[in-house]
Amino acid sequence: MIRIFKLMRTTAFLAVLCVSLATTAVSLGVWAVSLTAQVTTMTASAAAAAIAHRKAIAAAVLRTKAKARLRRALVVVPVAGIAAAIAFEREDYLEWKQDNPDGDLETYGCELSAVSAEVVDDVLQDLPEQVRPSRDWLLSRMPDCAETAAQL
Questions:
Q1: What is the pTM of this model?
Q2: Contact 138, 120 (CB under 8 A)
């Protein structure tokens, strides 16, 4: 009888131990899956933040280039100034073309027009009032990409 009692006690202990180990294994598995999901979410948000940061830097660089381009266009000296402006524009276009291999000259012009319209006020404020053209006059000289897109 004592032997049966010891056998039952040992069996009960082993059963409780197995259930405890199984429960612990399942809970650790759930915890590992939860941590994996958190790491995946954080990685995705870090990647999205990096992409947004890169786009913000590219936009800032584009704005700076547009500002410089407008300054160059406003102070063009006949012949030598025109040749320099053409060379600068060609260099900028070729650089843009590397980043946008499927783009064409019209797309480049529309992109420049949009960015230039954003910085026109900054450029005009930097000029002396005696030589500062009107904002409306300057904007009227820029191509209207909405019209061009509607014609296509």
A1: 0.45
A2: yes
CA terminus-to-terminus distance, the chain: 98
List, in order, residues 6 or more apart from 74 with CB less than 8 Å away: 123, 127, 131, 133
| 113 Cβ contact partners less than 8 Å away, ≥ 6 residues apart | 142, 143, 145
* Angstrom distance (rounded) from CA 26 to CA 35: 14
**Whether the Cβ atoms of residue 75 and residue 123 lie closer than 8 Å to each other:** no
Q: Left, alpha or beta for 79 (phi > 0: left; psi -120 to 50: alpha)?
A: left
Q: Which two tokens stand for residue 137?
A: 């006059």
Q: Among 106, 99, 112, which residue's Cα sits nearest to residue 66? A: 112
Q: Which residues are CB-neighbours of 85 under 8 A, at least 6 positions away?
A: 72, 73, 76
Task: Evaluate whether 70 touches 89 at the Cβ level (below 8 Å).
Answer: no
Q: In this predicted model, what pLDDT tens digit does every residue of 7-16 receive, in sequence order?
A: 899 999 999 9
How far apart CA 103 and CA 127 sit, in angstroms, is: 33
CB 82 within 8 A of CB 76: yes
